[in-house]
Design a protein that fits this description.
Blueprint lengths: L2 H6 L1 H28 L6 H11 L8 H7 L7 H10 L3 E5 L7 E5 L1 H17 L1 H4 L5 H15 L1
Antiparallel strand pairs: 1-2
């Protein structure tokens, strides 16, 4: 393939621009989230674990289920859960009959932290919610990003 064509092909340029915009926006959002989480002493990945466990209110999850639902697929779920356990945010119980089976639940302390974080996120994202984009554009953006990942 002619290398000059790669740089002048409008479709290829549009793809590169879209990918750069996605990455830049992702990092921008991640930086804002890190700023919000800093006073709470948790990371984005730890927050993700708490949200996953919150979706299972009266049920325990195992590490595999948590890992499968993680946004950051390279995260070490075992390490994240242990850090949250030490902070009293989750419980981690090993099945006495099957030591490989570990049940994880969010604690009331973890749920309280989530309420505080969600409140702070709503405050910080308020300008984003008042963006000039309308509901249809936000939905379309989400659909396009879903399609991009598929």
């Amino acid at each position: 393939m002619d290398e000059t064509k790669v740089y002048t092909d409008p479709i290829q340029q549009a793809r590169k621009r879209a990918i750069a915009a996605i990455l830049t926006t992702g990092y921008w959002i991640s930086d804002r989230l890190s700023e919000v989480l800093k006073p709470f002493g948790i990371s984005e990945q730890q927050l993700n674990v708490l949200f996953i466990l919150k979706k299972q209110p009266d049920q325990a999850c195992n590490l595999c289920e948590v890992q499968t639902q993680m946004m950051h697929k390279m995260s070490n779920a075992t390490r994240l859960v242990e850090k949250l356990r030490l902070k009293g945010m989750v419980t981690r119980e090993v099945d006495s009959e099957n030591r490989r089976k570990v049940e994880i639940k969010v604690t009331e302390k973890g749920l309280e932290l989530l309420r505080k974080v969600e409140s702070r996120l709503n405050e910080c994202h308020h300008p984003f919610y008042e963006s000039k984009l309308c509901m249809e554009e936000f939905n379309r953006l989400a659909e396009l990003l879903d399609k991009f990942r598929a």
